[in-house]
Structures are given as structure tokens and as C-alpha cells.
Fold:
Amino acid sequence: MKQGFKRRDLLKAGCAGGLLLATGLARGADSPATPFINQLSSLRAPLPKARGARVVVVGGGWAGLTLAKYLKRFHPAFDVVLIDRHAVFVSCPLSNLWMAQQIPLEFLTHSYLDAARNNGYLFFNATVIDLDRTRRRLHTEQGYIDYDYLAMAPGIDYDYARLGVEDPGDEYALRTHYPAGFTGASELLTIKNKLQSFRGGTFLLTVPAGNYRCMAAPYERACMAAAIFRKRGVRAKVLLLDMNPDVRIKRDGFLRAFKTFYPDIIQYETSVGITSVDPTRRVIATDFDEYAFDDAAIYPPVRASRLLERLELADLNTPQKEARIDPFKYHLIGDEHLYLCGDARSQPFSKSGNTANSEARYVAEVIAAHAEGREIPWRSPQTMCFSGVHIDPLEAMSIIAFYRYDKQQKTFAFDRTHMVEQWSTRIAQAGLAWGEGMYRDMFYSG
Ligand SMILES: Cc1cc2nc3c(=O)[nH]c(=O)nc-3n(C[C@H](O)[C@H](O)[C@H](O)COP(=O)(O)OP(=O)(O)OC[C@H]3O[C@@H](n4cnc5c(N)ncnc54)[C@H](O)[C@@H]3O)c2cc1C
Structure:
């Protein structure tokens, strides 16, 4: 995606604007008003003065909300500010169940103001646009904030180019007409509306290659889509095109669920090398074939949030354009005042909410220890994921796993994995209780 302006241009413009303002020339009677963008870099964000070392957390997702709460918990003297561009939190985890009307929207929707009030930090509804690491100054569209520590958790972005979609117009058409449903609330609402009003034919879903967000969710979504169509009595096929050679997680369970519940609805194709998508003709081209569809939710491969690239933190030589961080302490290499976690991390952990939550608790402790001149031993994040396969009654499977560092391979691998691929209503109930517990942890005190 092309940027409207480059960060250096903004800073330059901002400096020039600041200088003009300082010399009193900017708003002279005869001169035109200085564009707001030129004044932006010298504008302080409308926040209370810091009452201690200020830690700014970027991104109010699963990682950022947890960081903000536990930074305050582990080091109460920190003055913590959580920034998110959205005013309301809507959970991605469990959203497939909401699409299939197994839980209400209220279950997924929470207030940032409650989270901030209950946990003693500030919430700032703003968009981060620039960073001056030398001055430890973060810029938003509402002004700058100086920090002592910066903790970044901006999540992921889609990488449509890896589906062969390079033209911004085509990408826009896909984002709007066939959204993936793996980042924002509007995407989720659109997909739910599509599934609940589909009149029949082929509904296309895709599974990306690489380390994409929530390994199990595309397979769960196929089950939920099929269940919705059956319940509505629609003659429809769910075409699930997987860029991978096999189901990525809970393999036996998902394959058995497709066969047991939806043999006449789900068509599952593996090792599909998607080369292009034509949103107008509604055709997806692969290495060997073309598939026509009537409607779709197309999930492209993902990369770390483009914000990291914009702030010149991303290593563009990595396949998913992540930042180079210390894999155990999470700080940017060479900067122990800038930390990064959640799905934007460079470690190959599962991109999931529970992983982000457990990891962010640990990172909060690392930052608190740094401020106190201590170090703490490394702790593995914990991945926990429940997947619905059947509705009315809801039945689900689950996985819990940790990670260990393999010194020879110099990477992380799954450790102590506990997978239950025999679905049941009991696991489904445990999944809902897990979600409730997570929201309580992120939004309430205690
Ligand atoms: C359909 C679906 C089902 C899932 N199911 C599960 C599940 O069962 N279990 C599980 O554990 N996980 C699940 N996940 C995965 C989970 O949602 C993610 O792993 C988790 O949200 C990652 O947290 P994060 O904080 O890293 O990123 P996010 O939650 O995406 O948060 C990033 C935040 O950064 C903000 N941001 C980005 N850029 C800026 C900017 N410039 N300025 C200000 N704010 C910014 C965004 O607004 C966003 O709120 C699922 C995901 C989906 C989509």
C-alpha cells in the first residue's frame, strides 16, 4: 500500500512549521493559515502531565491491554498510557461463534475507558504516525507524547501482494467486497452479514501460507459457515482453498468434522498456490486451475503491522517484515527502551490472543525489572485455542501448548502440547469460560 506521505517529510514539514510558529510568522494577518499537518510535530498530546516514568503502549489489542494493566501492577510508579486508533474493543477470538449466533455481540465488545479506569492507566484514542527514538518522542495525529519506555503491540496487516494482487484498486476491491475478517470489527460484521444473507452457490474461504493469525480460525470459520447455511436451508458450497499442504492444526479433528457434519457442503482443497484474484469476475486463479465463486471472505498472508515499517523498525528482509528484537527480552536490538510483542513479534509463536496475553504479562515484568535494575528469567508464552465445529449445541476442540528454545536449530518449537481433537459441548463451554476470563483479565482489576 502506498503511503500518503513519508515520515521524514512529515517531520521536516513539522519542524518548519514549528519554526514558523516560534518566530510568529505562521499566522500573520496577511499570511495563509499554516496547514495543521505542519504544526503537528510541535503539538503536545492532550494528556495529563506524567507522574512518574512514562510507559507508552501502542495498540489496545490482546497484547497492549495486558501490557498496560500489568506494567502498572508490577511497577505502580509507572505512568502508563495505552493508545489505540479505535474507540471500542471488539474481540476477534470467538467471533466465528458470534457469526453463527452462538454468542451475542456484547460478549465480544468492551470499553477501553473501563479498562483504563479499573487498572489505573490512561487510555488515549489516537493513531500513532511517527517516532523519534533519539528524543524518545512518539507522534500521533493529536500531538506528541514523550516516553521513558515504549511498548509496541500493533498487530498484523494483510499482504495482498502474496496473492498476486499488486494494484491498489484491486486490493481495495478485495478489502471492501471480500474482507478477510482477521483484523477489524467492520470486516467481521460484513462477513457475518454475508453468511446470514447468502442466497446460495459457492462461498469461498482461503487459508494463507506462512505464520498467519490464528492457525485454527479459517477451518473453524468453514465449519461455522457450513453450519449457518445448513440451518438457513440454503443450497450452498463452502470452498476452502488452503495454500498449505494440509490442515495446519487440529488436523485429524477438522478433517473428521468436515466429513462427519458437512460432507455435502465443505469442499477442501490443499496446496493451492493462489496467483491472482479477479474481484469483478469473481474468479480466483491458482497454479493449475481457476475457481469461480459467488461470494467470499479472502484471507491473504499476513505481515507485521505496517506501522513498524513506517516507524523504520521493521526488517524488510524478513518474509513477514517484523522488527529485529531480542527473542527472550523483547526489546529492539540496541534499544532497551523500546519493546515489541503480540502478533507483530518476530518469534514464530502462534499468533493468538492467549499467546499475546501471557507473553505481554511477561514483557510487562521484563520492563518493570529493567526500570528497577533487575533481570528476570525467560518464560514461555502459552497458546490456548478453542475451535467450534458444530452448533446447536455448540461443540468444540482445544489445544494448549508452550514453547521451548531449540539451541541447535536456534528457534522455538512447541513444548508440552495438549490437544483434544474429540469435540464436545464440555470443551465448547470451557472455550466460552476462557473468553470470559480473558476479557475479565484485560478489562477489570483483580
Ligand atoms: C476470527 C478469529 C478468531 C480467533 N480465535 C482465537 C482463539 O480462539 N484464541 C486465541 O487465543 N486467539 C484467537 N485469534 C487471534 C487473536 O485475535 C490475535 O492473536 C490477537 O488479537 C493478537 O493480539 P495483538 O494485541 O498482538 O493484536 P491486535 O489484537 O490486532 O491489536 C493490535 C491493536 O493495535 C492497534 N493499532 C495498530 N496500529 C495502530 C496505530 N498506528 N495507532 C494506534 N493503534 C494502532 C489496532 O487498532 C489494534 O487494536 C483469533 C483471531 C481471529 C481474527
User: Anything to note?
Assistant: Confidence is low (pLDDT under 50) at residues 1-6, 10-29. Residues 238 and 266 are 5 Å apart (CA to CA). Residues 159-304 form a domain with the FAD/NAD(P)-binding domain fold (CATH 3.50.50.60). The chain has 13 helices and 23 strands.
